[in-house]
Design a protein that fits this description.
Shape: globular
Number of helices: 6
Number of strands: 0
Strand content: under 5%
Helix content: over 70%
Distance between the termini: 47 Å
CATH class: Mainly Alpha
Number of domains: 1
CATH architecture: Up-down Bundle
Structural class: mainly alpha
CATH superfamily: CDP-alcohol phosphotransferase transmembrane (TM) domain
């Protein structure tokens, strides 16, 4: 059972995203604060599943595949909710940053599928991990900060802008790491003979 804990945490992260969305959208006192804190808890399960898998020597193909998928589901659900609610500098800025993040991930996933079809495994690189860490820190900061709009506008302004700046930084890191994935793996596009 212990060797299944990392996979259970990964599945749990995916399963909790509808809960995050409900907490995000169903208005009751401090609902955004609670949604943001849930996101933080889910971030920690992302850290712990890998640590536990390596410590118990139970790294699995399931985990290698589903852990980054869970990361992308978390990011996509959170960013779409934020854009739809207007949690960004402007609606178009949030939409553009979300499209850039999701587009980059789809392109890199396509590259990974091409590589896999040729028997090559593309591991996540540091840039992709940094992108995930930055967005996973920025999302709850922006969401929790937005909770305080109308209560403490100065606090909300400062905190949400820290979250937005992190989101913008994640877009830049995302695209730089995505371009580097393609450059480092250009052999995937080589013609087969």
């Amino acid at each position: 059972m212990r060797n299944k804990v990392p996979n259970i945490l990964t599945i749990g992260r995916i399963a909790m995203m509808p809960v995050f969305a409900v907490l995000f959208w169903v208005e009751f006192p401090y609902h955004l604060l609670i949604a943001g804190l849930l996101y933080v808890v889910l971030d920690f399960t992302d850290i712990f599943d890998g640590v536990i898998a390596r410590k118990l020597k139970c790294v699995s193909d399931f985990g290698r595949f589903w852990d980054p998928v869970a990361d992308k589901i978390m990011m996509t659900v959170a960013l779409v909710c934020m854009v739809a609610r207007g949690i960004c500098w402007t609606p178009w800025a949030g939409a553009v940053m979300t499209i850039l993040m999701i587009g980059r991930d789809l392109a890199v996933n396509g590259l990974r599928m091409m590589a896999a079809s040729k028997g090559k495994v593309m591991a996540a690189d540091l840039g992709g991990k940094i992108k995930t860490w930055v967005i996973n820190i920025s999302v709850p900061i922006a969401v929790i900060g937005f909770q305080w709009v109308g209560v403490s506008d100065y606090f909300a302004f400062v905190v949400t802008n820290i979250g937005y700046a992190g989101w913008a930084a994640a877009v830049v890191v995302s695209w730089v790491s995505g371009i580097l994935y393609f450059v480092r793996n250009k052999d995937v596009f080589a013609k087969e003979e």
